[in-house]
Amino acid sequence: MAKRERRSYTKEFKEQIVQLHASGKARAEIIKEYDLTASAFDKWVRQHQNSGSFEEKDNRTPEQEELIRLRKENQRLAMENDTLKQAALIIWDESRCDPSEQSQILGISNVRRPTNLPKHILL
What we know:
The protein has helices at residues 11-22, 27-33, 38-50, 62-91, 99-106, 119-122. By secondary structure, it is mostly helical.
């Protein structure tokens, strides 16, 4: 069976299809007449019933919203952590220990301290 080409539909078209269904027209008849997939039709009806919108962001569950928020926060915190580790390496006084020891103490690897900067910038 050949794979269907992905199609996009306007908000107005989706609303018309949902209204046809709400007015009593049979699901199978609508799907056949407009050459729709059953899953797309069911999704539009469900979205319209739940939120009145066909936008994905308007139809997310609270758990999905929280997961998105937590992933963004996790990414931000990881970037902040990396920045702080880099800053600690740059600020670190060279007289205390060599760069390989610094990396071990800070729990990072493959981070090199810039060697081409003047000494007064590295302190």
